Amino acid sequence: MSAEELKRLHAVMSAPGKRKKTAKKILLVAVNTVVALFILLPLLYAVSIAFMPSSDLYTMSMNLIPTHPTLDNFREALTKVPLVRFVLNSFLVAGLITFGQVISCSLAAFSFSFLEFKGKNVLFMIVMATMMIPGEATIISNYLTVSSWGWLNSYRVLIIPYLTSAMGIFLFRQFYMSFPKALYEAAMLDGCSNLRFILTILMPLTKSGIGAMVVYTFINAWNMYMWPLLVNGSNEMRTVQIGISMLNSIDAQSITMMIAGVVMIIIPSISIFIIGQKQLIRGMFSGAVKG
User: Fold this and answer.
1) What are the sequence ranges of the domains in the chain?
2) Cα 227 to chain center, whole Å?
């Protein structure tokens, strides 16, 4: 049997397998598409409502798509409350909190991973134990503390209490524990300082961990509600989550206007998640695997 005949025979025998594999891929894509549409249906309907006039919403018929799309809801949301100011406040607060946690948590994790000092394991256990304390249990004492310091109605009361987190320390420590201790010892023998070791060696090697930390922290800071509501009473310092609740109290009948405001404020957090989802998934898993 010649080589050409062998190739033809192999192609004929492998054709059913290829068709079966292609059918499985098509079926998998179809199932994933249906599930994604089902999960995204509330969000897609909210976007549809944002473009609806109130007359389309308050009818007996179920209007899933606006019959007369309009941008008036977005204009009203931007004029009823200073929503742009709230968005800028949230960007500033979430950005500084994210930057602060990346710096503080990486430094703390470095100490728990590479430095040797008395009581290191006990101290790390205490830090991890703070994750079991709900924020509601300490919010009153924290409020009384910042109030006595005169921090109310300021950016520092929104930012400083959240400049570190036990979750961030744990995440970075898991990454650093995957590196051999000899790496740190070799750097010290070459005259590298601890800070330089972190900036030039650890940080580039933990880009996925930093990406995961950035996405996780930014979204949490962007969605903060109870603490900003408690410590700020001025429109100049309010964050975007408080602004949306103000839209509801201003005109309870204009649901379309409120939904338009909600759609505007979820765009940044969804964008951050979409951009950093690979880093988030990679960072959450790669730090738990050594080798």
Assistant:
1) 3-50, 72-286
2) 18
Residue found by looking up tokens 């880093």 in the block: 279
- Asked whether 264 and 77 are in contact (CB, 8 A), the reply is yes
- pTM here is 0.81
First to last CA, the chain: 49
Angle at the Cα of 92 (from 218 to 150), degrees rounded to 5?
110
Q: Which residues contact 168 (CB under 8 A, 6 or more apart)?
A: 101, 102, 104, 105, 109, 213, 217
Give the Å distances, CA to CA, from 210 to 91, 202, 207, 218: 19, 11, 5, 12
Q: By the 8 A CB rule, do 112 and 232 touch?
A: no
Model confidence over 51-103: pLDDT tens digits? 888 777 777 677 778 888 888 888 888 888 888 889 899 999 999 999 999 99
Which amino acid is present at 173?
R
- Rounded-to-integer distance, Cα 48 and Cα 162, Å: 36
Return the CATH fold of 72-286. Answer: MetI-like fold (1.10.3720)
State the Rg of the chain over Cα.
Answer: 26
